From TrEMBL:
PANTHER family in UniProt: GLUTAMATE-1-SEMIALDEHYDE 2,1-AMINOMUTASE, GLUTAMATE-1-SEMIALDEHYDE 2,1-AMINOMUTASE 1, CHLOROPLASTIC-RELATED
Name of the molecule in the record: Glutamate-1-semialdehyde 2,1-aminomutase
Cofactor list: pyridoxal 5'-phosphate
Keywords of the record: Pyridoxal phosphate
Domain of life: Bacteria
Organism, as annotated: Ancylobacter defluvii
One of the record's GO molecular function terms: pyridoxal phosphate binding
Coiled coil: none
């Protein structure tokens, strides 16, 4: 047995790709929309650091800003002159309503802090998160994940470590949650798009009802935008979809690959931070290195034409992928947004986690991912996985990916898969 020092050779199992044709996959360099492995092969990337590199790997503006921060000292350990600038720039996402910001290092920590803020504000303990939602790897919220036992439908609502679950797009379930547990309910924690359940976008009527019940009950809403933040523009995805959050967690794309996350909040939600009731700590939080990465990213995204191009490119890829399978007699659809989407072998977007579970096709997804990889295109092999698009994906990547999808569709049809 090969005893690696780092178990599996990677500190987050979500990042490892299976062997393919006897070969592993280890990245030596990432640039723009491409990965270069240790054997010198180049791949078009749709993992894009699990969504963290929206503007492309190693974007020169971010590299330059970080170089300067490193040279000036990345960790002064006292207030620095970039953090407030970065906070202001980031808070543009929150618009006129969600105007406060504080930094963390990971999305997991941002969720933890947002829950702490909601508990301090409401004086209640219980957090309700969505079945199938992923909100980080800390124990209380690592609960009700896709394919977990707790996510199964039963008559008893599961509770673990002051956390319970609700089911997206089920208004009756929300009513029952508030009727039975409202007095204890500090916060609703929900992704505006269930990225980890194959990019399911909840319905507006559901989000509006959820907002109404939460507001009537004095329960805070935490929109977990760690994955979708900045993927629809410099604004809140939650608000666009009918959910009115008090607190918003961000991560990934805000740092363009540099480890940084944040909590945004309304002035009211941040009162407990500003009056010192909720302590915010963290050696690395808001240091000049990460603040510089945020500032450079936000500056770049001031130019809205980037988004027009990104959405056109993503829409074209979604169409091309679906057409490639249709040409082989296989029905496929995509769910999500033009900057991040999932591929399903079905004719209609699942409405719920239960429905999604009946529609995932693990063997087909894995087979497609393998063929794409043989044609120089890396995707996430999980049936619940996503394709992340970046500003760096261009004509050559489109051409290569479309050819790879056609090959994948031919291979899938040849295997006898009917869709
Ligand atoms: C919606 C969501 N929330 C929270 C997290 C946790 O972020 P991190 O991995 O930076 O701790 C993730 C990570 O994938 C996520 O997708």
């Amino acid at each position: 047995m090969n005893a690696l020092t780092v178990p599996f050779g990677v500190s987050s199992r979500a990042r490892s790709l299976p062997l393919l044709d006897g070969k592993g996959f280890t990245v030596a360099r990432s640039q723009g929309a491409r990965l270069f492995d240790t054997e010198g092969r180049s791949f078009v990337d749709y993992g894009m650091a699990m969504g963290a590199t929206l503007i492309g790997h190693a974007h020169p503006a971010v590299v330059e800003a970080c170089k300067t921060a490193l040279e000036n000292g990345p960790m002064p350990g006292f207030p620095n002159d970039i953090e407030e600038l970065a906070g202001k720039a980031l808070a543009r996402i929150g618009g006129a309503r969600v105007t406060r910001a504080t930094f963390a290092t990971t999305g997991t920590e941002a969720v933890h802090l947002a829950c702490r803020i909601a508990r301090a504000t409401t004086g209640r303990r219980l957090i309700a998160k969505a079945v199938g939602g992923y909100d980080g790897w800390f124990d209380p919220v690592r609960f009700g994940l896709v394919e977990s036992a707790e996510a199964e439908r039963t008559n008893i609502r599961p509770v673990k470590e002051d956390t319970t679950l609700f089911r997206v797009n089920e208004i009756d379930d929300i009513d029952q949650l508030f009727d039975e547990m409202g007095a204890d309910l500090a916060a609703i924690l929900v992704e505006p798009m269930l990225g980890n359940t194959g990019c399911l976008v909840p319905e507006r009527a559901f989000f509006e009802h959820l907002t109404r019940r939460a507001q009537e009950n004095g329960t805070q809403i935490i929109a977990d935008e760690v994955m979708v933040g900045l993927r629809r523009g410099v604004r809140l995805v939650s608000e666009e979809l009918g959910l009115m959050p008090d607190l918003v967690t961000l991560g990934k794309a805000i740092g363009s690959g540099v480890p940084v996350a944040a909590v945004l909040g309304t002035p009211k939600a941040f009162e407990v931070v500003e009056n010192g009731t909720v302590p915010c700590f963290g050696t690395y939080h808001g240091n000049p290195l990460v603040a510089s990465a945020v500032l450079a990213t936000m500056k770049l995204l001031e130019d809205e034409s980037h988004y027009t191009r990104l959405f056109d490119w993503g829409a074209a890829l979604r169409r091309a992928a679906v057409e490639a399978f249709a040409a082989e007699g296989i029905t496929a659809i995509t769910t999500g947004f033009d900057s991040v989407f999932s591929l399903w072998f079905t004719d209609r977007m699942p409405r719920s986690y239960d429905e999604a579970k009946t529609k995932v096709r693990p063997e087909a997804t894995k087979r497609v991912s393998d063929t794409l990889r043989r044609h120089g295109v890396v995707s996430l092999p999980s049936p619940w996985g996503r394709y992340f698009i970046s500003l760096a994906h261009g004509d050559s990547e489109m051409e290569q990916t479309v050819l790879a999808f056609r090959a994948a569709a031919r291979d899938l049809a040849a295997s006898g898969f009917k869709g």
